[in-house]
Amino acid sequence: MAHHASGSWLLPVPLTLLLFVIAFVYLRGLRSSGRASRRELPPWRIASFLLGLALTGIASVSPLAELDHRFLTAHMIQHLLLLTIAPALILLGDPVRSLSRGLPQGSAQEALGTLFRSPPFQQLGGLLANPVVCWLAAAATLIVWHVPPIFALAMQSPALHIVEQLTFLAAGLMFWWPVIQPWPSVPIWPRWPILLYLFLATIPCDILSAYLTFCETVVYRTYLGLPGATETSVLRDQELAGSLMWTCVTILYLVPAALLTVRLLEKSSRGLLASAGKVEPNRSSPDSSRTA
Fold first, then answer.
1. Is 166 among the domain residues?
2. Over the stretch 153-195, which tens digit does the pLDDT of each residue have?
3. Are the CB atoms for 216 and 275 separated by under 8 Å?
4. I need a labelling partner for 98 at 20 to 30 A (CA). Which of 26, 48, 72, 168 fits?
């Protein structure tokens, strides 16, 4: 990531153009779909996808992209956007179906359809959508990039910093895939274990954030080399970054877990009521026959 003056916006042409192209193809896919298909995708899902793209841009090309080289708190906000918030919003917008419909008619869509139907692609997709693989990918991405030597190397290399951001976004999309289950995902697990999946996902984040918050030494000494930086100021920034991560991750994983719990309980209640409705006539029928 190229450096730029604090408080200014850096708009790398390739990344900015890519985000606009993705948004255009997505909206084109919505427009080309029939009315029934458009009704299946409410406006809040469309807004969710576009907001996810916007947050991806904010994490990559706004002043936040420069401030992360000066403050660990800004760096942590960037990672929270790329790993946790933006991917969830993007997947809520049903991206695969809308983007595939937005591609040029003819060869592009035929090639994509052939690719989706190919056994190797379906096997790879099944592997990448496996909750265990998704959890491990997100946890490994978080841990590896916060190992101090790797962290320092990524801060010094613009190319490696871009790779870091891409892996955070990819790991975020993988992590949220089993939770949101957008098209064309095929559920392979019951929904109840997803609650455990979300709970376990907080553990690596909690360990890292607790270490940053309560560690009494500077973990990422790269920040000590910045003009005007002191050990006290860098340590305070580190504590704030750890506390922010701890709080945000807990909330961001607790909310979908609570919503999923309510949905599962409602589904279970409907099933019990339906079963009771079926059993009641069977109980009353012998009494009715005896009365007759």
1. yes
2. 999 998 999 999 999 999 999 999 999 999 888 777 788 999 9
3. no
4. 168
